[in-house]
Amino acid sequence: MNYESPTQVIPAFTSVPRHVAIVMDGNGRWAKNRFMPRVAGHKRGVEAVRETVKTCGELGIEYLTLFAFSSENWRRPAEEVSVLMQLFLVALDNEVAKLHANGIRFKVIGDLTRFDARLRDKIAASEALTESNTALTLTVAANYGGRWDILQAMNKAQKECVSANREVSEFTEDLLTPYLSMAYAPEPDLFIRTGGEQRLSNFLIWQLAYTEFYFTPELWPDFGRSSLIRAVDSYGKRERRFGRTSDQLAASLGISSDCTSDAA
Ligand code: IPE
Ligand code: IPE
Ligand code: MG
Q1: For residue 1, is pLDDT > 90?
Q2: Is there an atom of ligand 2 within 6 Å of 55 CB?
Q3: What is the mean pLDDT of the chain?
Q4: Separation CA 85–CA 116 (nearest Å)
Q5: Which element (helix H / strand E) includes 153?
Q6: At a CB cut-off of 8 Å and minimum separation 6, what does 29 contact?
Q7: Cα separation of 214 and 202, whole Å?
Q8: Which member of 8, 141, 208, 227 has the lowest number of beta carbons within 10 Å of its beta carbon?
């Protein structure tokens, strides 16, 4: 397991984030600006995903997690929901072989019980095919909600304790976190949201406790290689103190405190 909690241990980190999590927002507005149906924005959004995956590979980012459909997105018009599901199916058909050829491990997190069997089977097959790949782990969050994630982890942990006849008087991080849906990954170092809104919209609420945030007004279909590089550059200049002072951070990096913002 790659997971380590920043509230338990001060994590080691590098100037390039290991894990980038993105709320890909603004597809609808991108299309509306062009007098096109919202769906056209979602289609272009898939192209932006392709470019982002490629750039992550170039930059040496190890984990990329993309919010594709939230547990609240079912509230959208039925037609838009159905097109989004269709696009997901088509993307699985068209892209997974390429991901595999590029050594990318593919994963999906979220409550998949609400998806139809065909989609669930394709997801399972894609995950199985790419399971042993090591170049980049690409996770798509589909019917995902941060609160759902914490609750499902608690329910699983509790069930397992009951079946092991183990009495638990209180929940701890150690007990809970192995059951979170991203237990296979370190927590995100960098969170990006396109589209101008500055909110989480119920994305990885547990895992973003110490993540650096980057908001951009760019709409997701316009988010390209240089946009990602800008976000990563911004991350490289942050001082990740994890509760400590700047001086303590500098000392831990073995440098003078004047340089921390460049080195962190
Ligand atoms: C994000 O773009 C994609 C999904 C939520 C599936 P939106 O569809 O939310 O685009 P805007 O926010 O309406 O522009
Ligand atoms: C968040 O975007 C979810 C995804 C990008 C999949 P939304 O567009 O659904 O978020 P809200 O509704 O504006 O908060
Ligand atoms: Mg939106």
Answers
A1: no
A2: no
A3: 94
A4: 9
A5: helix 146-163
A6: 41, 195, 219
A7: 16
A8: 8
Q: What is the pLDDT of residue 142?
A: 97
> Which has the higher per-residue pLDDT, 168 or 218?
218
Q: What is the pTM of this model?
A: 0.95
**Does pLDDT of 123 surpass 60?**
yes
Mutate to test the pocket of ligand 1, among 22, 23, 29 (most ligand atoms within 8 A of CB): 29
Q: How far is the CA of 117 from the centre of ligand 2 (A)?
A: 25
Residue 193 has pLDDT above 70, yes or no: yes
Which atom of ligand 2 is least distant from the CA of 73?
A: 9
Taking every pair of Cα atoms in the chain, the longest distance, rounded to a whole number of angstroms, is: 61
248 lines ligand 2 (CB under 6 A): no
Residue 261 in this model has a pLDDT that exceeds 60: no
Which residue's CA is the closest to the ligand 2 atom numbered 2? 25
Q: DSSP letters along 138-152, please?
A: EEEEEEE-HHHHHHH
CB of residue 192 inside a 6 A radius of ligand 2: no
143: left (phi over 0), alpha (psi -120 to 50) or beta: left
Structure tokens at 38: 């919202």
Active-site amino acid positions: 25, 73
